Amino acid sequence: MRFSGTAVVWREDNCFVAMCIENNVASQGETMDSAVENLKEALLLYYEDEVIPQYSTRYIAPLELAI
């Protein structure tokens, strides 16, 4: 079974945070790549004993607002 999801990555203080938007599982790392790799490990643990849901394709759209 394969899981296909979308990760959002951002810098927070001295590390990067990666979060899967389909289930709010998150992890962090010193680099963007390590944060994503750590997120993959976290997702494996999260779905270890669960049925993996099938999500429809997600699209990321940048937003800019004048506030």
Key descriptive features of the protein:
67 residues, alpha+beta, 3-stranded antiparallel β-sheet, 1 helix, 24% strand
Describe this structure in words.
The protein is of the alpha+beta class. The chain has a domain at 7-46. The chain is built from one helix and three strands. The protein has one helix at 32-46, and strands spanning 7-12, 15-20, 26-29. It has a three-stranded antiparallel β-sheet, with helices on one face. A hairpin with a 2-residue loop joins strand 1 (7-12) and strand 2. It starts with 6 loop residues before the first strand and ends in a 21-residue tail after the last helix. The mean pLDDT is 89.
Residue windows where pLDDT falls under 50 for at least 5 positions: none
The quaternary organization reads as: single chain
How many extended strands? 3
The outline comes out as flat
Order of helices and strands: EEEH
Structural class: alpha+beta
Main β sheet profile: 3 strands, antiparallel
Mean pLDDT: 89
Put simply, the count of helices is: 1
Q: Give the strand content.
A: 15-25%
Helix residue percentage: 10-25%
Widest sheet: strand ordering: 1-2-3
| Terminal-residue CA separation | 44 Å
Rg is 13 Å
